Sequence to fold (299 residues):
Amino acid sequence: MNAKPIKRVGFVGLGIMGSRMARNLARKGFEVTVWNRTRSRAESLQADGIKIASSPAALASQVDAFCTCVSDPPALREVALGKEGLLASSRSGQLFVDFSTVSPEFSRELEAAAARQGVDFVEAPVTGSKTGAEKGTLLLMVGAKPGALERAQPIFQAVGEKVVHCGPVGAGSQVKLAGNALISMMLEGLCEGMLLTQRAGVDPRKFLEVVQSSGFRSPYYEFKGPSILRREFETHFSIDLMFKDLSLFLDSAARHRIPTPSIAAVRETYQLARAQGKGAQDIAAVVTALEDLSGEKLH
Ligand code: NA7
Fold:
């Protein structure tokens, strides 16, 4: 395979994460071309010297490497394998980096489809939320063959600060799903604990203070605890996307015959929030779904 140095990078999917990652790639000196389903989001990046392509296929024909960061497997299927998708006009020697969170099986399907075109594929789901994407401090959970991983390093360095090579393609997604399942349980425990503490007449701030002074403290609670108490639910990571990840986790658990009763229950909290029309809100807003169930509102 003809592995040229990567200078021109394409980016498809300019949501909360992708828009910030594309901007960081441009700031680090890559020539960036983007495509987004809703064009206005792409236009807001033009001030950073970023070009807009007319379709994912058109984008792939103009770059050395292309990246994706879209919502879910159907969106990724569309932009990668659709009629106007990236692989419709990709060529041998290119690199495809997917930052979306999808299933391990779909990542492997994409790797095989890319290989048929002579394209190296790397899956690199991220964690670090909106702030990490903004600052270029994301943690990347990579699944890739060693050669492809090596090629992607300059792109990773532009968007993140730590790369964990989890194994071959599929391994990164598997780790990401387990990580998000854990976050959902941490958040659920915090919300349930706060609501019960308050109902029993104790200030939930005391609960948070003890958690954060203890051996089970977490930077995650430092991030989410005060914002829940202040009722600040600006979207860093949406309820809809966490529901998607928990569903992918449960699909994988079913496939591998691993019982995961806690995550099955926690997903229902997210389903309840979605039923209440809160899908686009931040995951911290699941507390409001629990408040509605219990009749206890944090104050
Ligand atoms: P956002 O902010 O919800 O952004 C999602 C992006 O995916 C956005 O660019 C969407 O385009 C795009 N999208 C969604 N559906 C499609 C279809 N069908 N076709 C093309 N593009 C689509 O998500 P985040 O940035 O927080 O997260 C992105 C991924 O990283 C996700 O997998 C997370 O779990 C982790 P739009 O602007 O709506 O037209």
